[in-house]
Description:
The complex is a heterodimer of chains A (435) and B (248).
Chain A: H1 2-21, H2 25-39, H3 41-54, E1 58-62, H4 65-78, E2 83-86, H5 90-94, H6 97-103, E3 107-110, H7 113-120, H8 137-148, H9 156-173, E4 176-179, E5 183-185, E6 190-195, H10 199-205, E7 209-215, E8 219-220, H11 226-238, E9 245-249, E10 263-269, H12 292-296, H13 298-303, H14 314-324, H15 342-346, H16 353-363, H17 369-386, H18 389-401, H19 410-413, H20 426-433
Parallel strand pairs in A: 1-10, 2-3, 2-4, 4-7, 5-8, 7-10
Antiparallel strand pairs in A: 5-6, 6-9
Chain B: E1 3-6, H1 10-14, H2 17-29, E2 33-35, H3 45-49, H4 53-68, E3 77-80, H5 83-96, H6 101-109, E4 111-113, H7 114-121, E5 134-137, H8 141-146, H9 151-159, E6 163-164, H10 179-183, H11 185-200, E7 206-209, H12 212-225, E8 232-235, H13 236-242
Parallel strand pairs in B: 1-2, 1-3, 3-4, 5-6, 5-7, 7-8
Helix pairs in contact in B: 2-13, 5-6, 7-9, 11-12
The complex binds iron/sulfur cluster (SF4).
Amino acid sequence: MLQRALHNLDRRLRTAGESAAAHPDWKDRAAAIRRETLLDLDGWLDRLEHSLVARGVHVHRASTPADARRVVVELAQARGARTVVKSKSMATEEIDLGNALEDAGLTSVETDLGEYIVQLAGERPSHMITPAIHKTLPQIRDVLAKEAGTDLAVDREALTAWARDRLRGEFLRADIGITGVNFAAADTGTLVLVTNEGNGRFCTTLPRVHIAVMPVEKVIPRLADAGILLPLLTTHATGQALSNYVTMISGPRRAGEVDGPDELHVVFLDNRRRTLLGTRYEEMLACIRCGACLNVCPVYRNVSGHAYDSVYSGPMGKVLTPLLSGGTEGADLPYGSTLCHACSDACPVKIPLGDMILALRADVPDPHSGARRRRRIFWTVWARAWSTPSGYRLTTALGRVSRGRVPGLQAWTSTRELPRPARESFRDRWAKEHA
Amino acid sequence: MPKVALFVTCVADQVFPDTAAATVRVLEAAGAEVVFPAAQTCCGQPAITAGEPAAAARLAHHHLDVFGALDAGEIDAIVAPSGSCTAMVCHHYPALLAERRTEAEALAARTFELTQYLVDVLGVVDIGARLDTTVTVHDACHGLRNLGLGHETRRLVEGAGATLVEMTEPDTCCGFGGVFSFGFPEVSTRLADSKLGHAAGTSARYLVSGDLACLMHLDGRRRKVGPGTVPQPIHIADLLASGLPPKR
Ligand code: SF4
């Protein structure tokens, strides 16, 4: 089911990819913009803060997820808020904001349809762009019918209509709207938000207060850069030339304006991101969360997002999860890759994901340190032996004598035959023929 | 006559010597003279994928010592019957051997995968092999994405007169992935099944690829469950050599 859903998405993306291929330099330009930003991330953040403040926006800097949660919860409590509506945002998933708000006694409602379904089911999103892609239509009906307390038809339109109706009420009731940010332009202080259901626009205009949680790398130097990055994001995310809604927010409601919040807060979230600057993993901060690397990943397509047991899944999750947790989470994720590099090829901002996954196998501190030590000893001995022709000859001769019956092959041989070493190696054959 | 040093790879040397011999025959048929540097062992790829770059670097130094010492005026190219091992040298060595970067880059510049050397360097698509059969191609990942290969194998297959039948998603990974095939055997096996299913859909006689590791994985699965209608996995060198006239 998941594979078919992803296959359909893949077909749409391939078509979009072909239209993007009409502009082969877009990826290069996007990659250049992102790297330009990373060269002076702190500088661009200062400029962004300056522009935001000039527009009457409150800026908060949070270095850890706990800091970010505290900022948001305190803002909510100080305003006596009871209900919060959220639009889909990986940053708020990353800091587990929904649970923090519930713990503080607030009601937090996800308003992206897929995210709403996942929240009602008590699950986590399995895909960044399409959070409920792991669920079938009848399963979705069951989740929504339970919430509705009545029977609902297994019908796409009818289910969506019911959810839309229900969510309208939530939007009107909510005291605070919480969103992420797709891009934030340093020159103009504009927050750019991409959605397909219009829920983001409700979250940013109806409630009295809008809080945007923005991981630090979302800053872009100029609003004009969105001209390249936006279409690249949407073609790689959903195959659309542009998403249904692109919202550009430049401050809270001003005198004479009919809608918009009274207060706008932006939380800059670091969470170890700035420690990646200047390392071989710096480019990971160029990520625009399009999900293309997930869609092309043979492993992701096979196991779905939940198997990763982390907020970020797929190839980008294998890199980001251990890096953002300092190795305390997802230390094993880099091994769950065939290193096929399909992700590196798909990435619209040219992040060498395959190479990073490989490098992380050595760089992430291992939680099972005993196993790591044994591994190191094995490969060190192996390298000693095989870095001399005589050592290579000796060990391979032993392999031939044992006919390949060495321990530890069970994981392979239970589902696949394993060929045995040949009776005569090529080098021996060559030596005989050229004696 | 171009002179080629064979970078045999440890897998071909120890497990598939016939494929190594076929590689020599194919290169000779294309007009090259082949030498075999006897001190070579392994490029170090298994260690780097296991997460041990220091061990890998030790092998890489040895490989660079052996092949880097070959006189560039005498040896025109170093050729391997593997996209993956070639990618280890061309894609990973310059960073892995940072203190010998210039040497490593020079080595990378004259190391080629077999089909790449035949088609892109020598410009040969017909080596004189004649094949009356049907073939489908699996694009092995490292050749495809680290070296940019793709059309070379297809042109050689057609150059030998065989009929090429493309499978669905020829460029999707077969699920081998080195240590991945041991660490995640279920997913690895499911990916092999999916690849074999796509290959069977073509009704071709052979499933050809340029990497022995992928072929070992695919053939291992095929033999475990019974061949059914799945094409026989075969290395491009073995396929081409089978169509050459018998050696005098
Ligand atoms: S790593 Fe690249 S492909 Fe993956 S989500 Fe980020 S931008 Fe998209």
